[in-house]
Amino acid sequence: MYMIISKNLITFLIILASSPSRSNGQQQYSGNSVMNCEASDETGPSPAFLYSCNDERPSCKAILMFRTQPPYSSASSIANLTSSDPQELARLNNITASEILPPDSAVFVPATCSCLGKYYQANTSYVYKSTNETYFTIANQTYQGLTSCNALKHQNPYNKLKLIPSTNLRVPLRCACPSQEQISNGTKFLLTFLLTWHDSVANISKKFNVSAKSVATANGFATEDPIVYPFTTILIPLQTEPQASKLRWFFSTSFPYAAVSHTKPFRWISVGVGAGAALVVFCFLALLGFMHFRRVRAARFSREMKERLPEHFLDKVVGIGESLKIYKYEELEAATDNFSPQRRLSESIYHGILRGNRVAVKKTSRDISKEIKILGNLNHFNLINLYGVCEHHEVFYLVYEYMEEGSLKNWLCRETSAFAHSWNHRILIALDVANGLDYLHNCTSPAYVHKDINSCNILLNRELRAKITNFSLAGENGKSHTGSVVGEKGYMAPEYVEAGEVSPKIDVYAFGVVLLELITGREAVLVKDGEESLLSEVVISAADGTHMADDANALVDPRLHVKHPLGFAIDQSELALRLLKLCAACLAPQPTTRLSMGEVVNALMKIQPDVYNSQSFSIE
């Protein structure tokens, strides 16, 4: 008896040892555990929260699926809910930003997915509207399972029973990055797919033209036909972006099962064959019409380009696509009241209304082909949106989206409300800039270095979201620098000033200075008694003394000091120190010892929840 048990035990251990271990990139399907809002992850990451980090990629581009529901029925409204780029979302779904889609239409949302602590997440925010809402309803109704009530509870300092309308909640969205094994198999994106009734791994895989095995592996399923539940998510490994125009029809409103008569099967077969043939003919004619429309539009676009832009300029910007609009000079004159002084935002920039949109028009005589080529091929929420271009008498006009709050430098100098100058907004601005640079350095092909990051080249919209502008000095990463060193004093890295050395680390250095400006409220170059000193040198040396905590607290912008409702000042030295240490890591003299922008994003995302905690005690 003992011998039999021992033999069976040994056999079991051998089988267990020979079974494949869980891949680092393999996520675990949550099942209905996301419906339990009292889950715990103290012993390790739990799928009831979000997808866990695989320690292989700190950030990546991901895609989320959302089903339209009022009031989230257009690209712009869904982008606002998910903090994604509305133009990129519209492009991905082959729709316009303002187009209203039918209810329950599948929409694919681009997202930057980053590892924060235990979990991957794409960050957005949501303003709590009424006392009828809870963490559960926000997670499962508003966001349709793209987040979880456990994740919301974990990342917000507010008690679920004491949520107050107008509270700004941090919302981490479910996303994940491919593992190295998935990348080697050709996977470029992981799509977070929202399951509904009658969905199965088999039919979803077929619609996306991927193998059921790859979907099963990506979600930790033991079989290719597992049990899945509506209102949960699974990951779909994709080699290319999903073709929304084809998939929206498959994943739109589910049709109820109709009772079918079996008395005349051949009649229904004939009807089906006839309808199918008609559909094929219709699709063929529609395809011919669409191809003709594309050819006509491309020819018109090319003709307009040649008519309105000089040939030598066209040669430089070939390949920017049809998204760039070519404006007539008369349009810009009308939009800016003939470039009147009252419309002037700065020495060469004017604001106006053009084709129903509020825009900023930049007037310049320098070569703008490089800037147009970069912005014409990039699309990210934290990079300024270039609408179009015009040429008139050898003067060029660039038309950008309008940013209501102007430059970060001017905003920091203005005396606005205490609410506007809060830690929440300062950290969010820093995260926006860091995300934009991370995208330039790691998510574009080719990768770019901005080379001129400063508080004047960071613009804010009415919600105080930041976008990077002025790509006149930007260049491809890895290309040797030629010409003189050009940049803003106080922001240039030592290796760039001394040897003209260009790498993404010079943007990291400049970002460190911008972060110092956000913390201290001071300018990058300080002037006292007629003598100049650099903010980076003054602050880092002050925060590196024996009384670092006291010095750090004294360096904080007075407008950021937080008061408890009882009236006493809340000590923020720990928060200030963490931010100053992050600045120091960005401003390291040797570029090899500086952080990467991906590491900066992760560090700020770890600091952000503590900022929410401290800010929740403030009083205006």
Beta-strand percentage range:
15-25%
Per the principal axes of the C-alpha atoms, what is the gross shape?
globular
Q: Would you tell me the overall average pLDDT?
A: 79
| Biggest beta sheet attributes | 6 strands, mixed
Q: Stretches where pLDDT falls below 50 for ≥5 residues?
A: 1-24, 253-270, 616-620
Range of helix content = 25-40%
Number of strands: 18
Number of discrete domains = 3
Radius of gyration: 27 Å
> Helical stretch count?
21
Describe this structure in words.
- 39% of the residues lie in helices and 16% in strands.
- The chain is built from 21 helices and 18 strands.
- The strands form five sheets. A six-stranded mixed beta sheet has the order 4-3-2-1-5-6.
- It has 620 residues and is an alpha+beta fold.
What tags apply to this protein structure?
620 residues; alpha+beta; 39% helix; Transferase(Phosphotransferase), domain 1; Phosphorylase Kinase, domain 1; 21 helices; disordered C terminus; six-stranded mixed β-sheet
Provide a quick synopsis of the model.
This protein is an alpha+beta fold and 620 residues long. 39% of the residues lie in helices and 16% in strands. It has helices at 2-18, 75-82, 86-93, 135-142, 149-155, 180-184, 201-208, 212-218, 244-250, 265-308, 311-316, 329-335, 369-377, 408-413, 423-442, 494-499, 504-520, 535-542, 548-555, 573-586, 597-615, and strands spanning 59-67, 106-116, 119-127, 168-173, 189-194, 233-238, 325-326, 349-354, 357-364, 386-392, 395-401, 406-407, 448-449, 458-460, 466-468, 475-476, 525-528, 531-534.
